[in-house]
Structure formats: C-alpha cells, structure tokens
Write a structure and sequence with these properties.
2 helices, 26 strands, globular
Amino acid sequence: MKKAIDHILEGREKKITEEDVVIQPLPHQNFRFANPFIVLHHMRPVVIKPGQTSRIHPHPHRGFSPYTIMLQGEGYHRDNAGNDKVIKAGDVQQMFAGRGILHSEGPTDEMLKQGGTQELIQLWINAPKAHKWDEPFYQAATQEQQPRVLESDGLNFRLLSGDYEGKTGPIKNFTPVISIVGEISAGKAAHFTATPGYWTLLYIIHGDVVVNDTAVSAHNLIVFNKENEDISVTAATDAQVLYLSAEPIEEPVAAKDNFVMNTPEENEQAISDYKNGLFGSLSF
C-alpha cells in the first residue's frame, strides 16, 4: 500500500559560515528530527573562481556522523585521527565523531586553483547512546563502489548505504540506514519499497516530481508516515532525489552547536571539553 505523506518541509537558507549558505529542510520549525536523521544541509551549486579561498576551519564534533554526498566538484576531509581524503563528484564519505574529533573540510586545493562548480549534501546521522563514546573512524566510497539499484529506462540510482534489492551499500552505520541518490528523466517514474516502521524521507535535490499523487518541487523534504511501504516518484521535469530510510533510534536527542548527545548537560560538557582543549588540535 502507498505510504502517506506526513510532512513536506521547505528547505530554508541557513548561514553556516561567513561565506557559506546552505538549504536546510531538517531540522524544521514544523518537524524536529527523524532520529537517526538529525540534519540535512544542501549546498547548492556554487561557482568557485580560480584563486578563490573557501574552507571550513577545524571544528569539533561528538556523538554522531557527518555524512557527505558530493554531487559536483570535489572536496577534502582532514581530521586529527589521521584521516586525509579527497572525494569527487559521485563519491560519499562518513566520519564517525564518536567521543570527539576535530576536522576541516572544503574544496580541494586543486579546485580552488583551477575553479569549478561545487555542490554537496551533508547529513548528520545520529549514533545510539551505547556507541556515542566509541573511537572515531572514517569511511569513504567512490561512485564506482556504489551498487546500482532501481535499474530501468530513464533512472540512474546508486545505493550508498544499507541493504536494498539484495545489494549492500559501502557505507556502514550502527543503526540500519538506507540511502539512495539518483536521477529520474522527465516523464519516468521510480518505485521505492520502504520498510514499515522505519523513518522514510525523500529530498528533492533538483526538478519537480509527483510523489504518491502529490506534486513536490526542489528543495523540499518529504517525511512519510511509518506505515505501509510503497512510494512512487514521477518526474515532471528531469529530477534528482535522495531517498533515506532508517530504523528509528528511540532515545532522547539533544543537539547543540556541533554536538548530538542525549541530554543538554552532555552537550554543555562537550562544549566545555572543546574549550579546554580536550578535543586535541588540527593544523589547517
């Protein structure tokens, strides 16, 4: 049976640095979290001029995983656990912050030198309380390492994480998380099968679509009712979408600044630990 739509959350501009503005549909004033999905940021296509400087300075995280889907361009990741990686268009990366980590990110030196277009999505994927104090780790996967799913004329989808159609995505999570990104040509339809009881979301990156008989435009995030399993997405124009589904984490969520913990007191402790240098250091 078709899944009902509970919310359509319009992405709004949010300034994350002095230079960087993203579209944020989650969290939203009408809907807070779909735990483990805490944040969805879409950095729309940005033209980087040759010689431009654009980087996000080292900053701390604790208790969750920043998960980056590179749509255009290329970006670097560097952290004080020793990871130093470049991901290019179509690639994905996930850094588990665990008990605490510092990292920096942004366009690569080569892209800043040559110029180009940068576009990405970053998710914050929560970790269960039992794992929030685990050792940090990093993982990445190229576009070629991502299995193709929903294969049909006019569809181009890749499985980034989780199990779908008997295939397994390369990015691993503590809690089962299915993430699929891809394109639908105008006039074609994609049919997703969700797991009843899971949170299921659909973000329209580009284009206009009809989702279970409801028209939805770009930069809107759909939150489905947890019952039933069928989702039909028909493209009115060429479209790109991100499908997310995950087993709920039935625990309190306290999110503040760069931290996602279970209580406000734990966030205040994280802020204090960072100010007192307990997160270590990272050269830019």
